[in-house]
Amino acid sequence: MATASSPPPGTRTDVRPVQPTPEDFLEEQQSPEFADLRRTYRSFAFPLTVAFSLWYLLYVLMSNYAGDIMGTKLFGNINVAMVFGLAQFATTFLIAWLYSDHAAKKLDPKSEAIKNRLEYPEAGK
Q1: What's the predicted TM-score (pTM) here?
Q2: What CA–CA distance (Å, rounded) separates 7 from 117?
Q3: Is the Cβ–Cβ distance between 41 and 47 less than 8 Å?
Q4: How distant is the alpha carbon of residue 103 from its chain centre?
Q5: How far is residue 116's CA from residue 9's CA, in Å, rounded to a whole number?
């Protein structure tokens, strides 16, 4: 597997990466590969952001307007509000883990290919 500083497979090892120009970045931004990368990112990030925001808003609204429900003791001194609050932390860590996995499997390979195309333009010819 290529590291961040290694050239793409099949290139000479004495070739150094070039510094892309602003025009190169603008051109790459219009490419189908970049559009696919952006779509892959957004299709994961936006739905989870909306879902978590709604979940958090439910917690806040229930804490303010459904005190009787939130104050219901489940066992010992643990009530529904405590469980909801702890679930917020668990959800945050779950989303972070899911995003890390998604990025490693889907985003990183695509972004690495774009980076290599910009830094090693001769390899693609």
Answers
A1: 0.76
A2: 10
A3: no
A4: 6
A5: 10
Give 79's strand partners.
73
Structure tokens at 97: 């883990």
Report residue 86 as tokens: 């702890």
Cα–Cα distance, 43 to 45 (Å, whole number): 6
Per-residue pLDDT of the chain (125 residues; tens, 9 = 90+): 455 556 666 655 667 888 988 998 899 999 999 999 999 999 999 999 999 999 999 999 999 999 999 999 999 999 999 999 999 999 999 999 999 999 999 999 999 999 999 998 877 65
Cα 2 from Cα 29, distance rounded (Å): 23
Which pair of structure tokens corresponds to residue 71?
Answer: 């104050």
Structure tokens at 121: 């333009």
DSSP state for residue 123 in the 8-state scheme: G
Q: What is the DSSP letter of 75?
A: E
State whether the Cα torsion 11-17-20-26 is positive or negative: positive
